[in-house]
Amino acid sequence: MEQVEAREDATAARLRELMLPLEPEHLVIDNFSHQHARGSGSHYRLALVSRAFGGLSRVARHRLVYQAAADLMPDPVHALMLELYTPEEWRAGSRAPGEPPPCRGGE
After folding, report:
1. Mean of the per-residue pLDDT values of the chain
2. What are phi and psi of 64, to 5 degrees?
3. What is the mean pLDDT of residues 26-37?
4. Residue 37 domain-assigned?
5. Residue 10 lies in a domain
6. What's residue 101's pLDDT?
7. Domain CATH code at residue 71
8. Which end of the chain, N or C, is more open, meaning fewer C-beta atoms within 10 Å of its C-beta?
9. Is the pTM here over 0.85, yes or no?
10. pLDDT score for 95
11. Which of 33 and 38 is assigned the larger pLDDT?
12. Do the domain assignments include residue 97?
């Protein structure tokens, strides 16, 4: 794995472990739960670069990651924002944006 970054709590650490079978070249996991005052669960952003995504549609990539993370959803992970790339897409300049949009349910 080229790079693994995580600002990890226990759930983020478990998410990282669950993504390892996808052999990530780059993995960033951010917990954005602090932006949701109602305590509606844990909100995470996962940016992942993997050869496993080669030839897969965006929907198929999301399904693959959601299947891998199924044991954590919906509790303790309430929301999971995914940014999924092949190594080629990543090198070509596709980058995950910095901040996720605000959750409509959290006030």
Report:
1. 79
2. -60, -45
3. 75
4. yes
5. yes
6. 46
7. 3.30.300.90
8. C
9. no
10. 57
11. 33
12. no
Number of structural domains the chain divides into? 1
For 40, list phi and psi in degrees, rounded to 5.
-85, 25
Contact yes or no for 5/27 (Cβ under 8 A): yes
* Closest C-alpha among 2, 32, 27, 31 to residue 17: 27
Rounded Cα distance, 75 and 42, in Å? 8
Measured between alpha carbons, how far apart are the two ends of the chain, in Å?
A: 38
Helices (H) and strands (E) in the chain, counts: 3, 4
Average pLDDT over residues 10-38: 84
> Can you say whether residue 39 is alpha, beta or left, with left for phi > 0 and alpha for psi between -120 and 50 degrees?
left
How far apart CA 94 and CA 107 sit, in angstroms, is 31
Yes or no: say if 62 and 52 are a contact pair by the CB < 8 Å rule.
no
Residues of the domain holding 77: 3-91
Contact 29, 51 (CB under 8 A): no
Please indicate, yes or no, if residue 100 is contained in any of the structural domains.
Answer: no
Q: Which two tokens stand for residue 64?
A: 């693959």
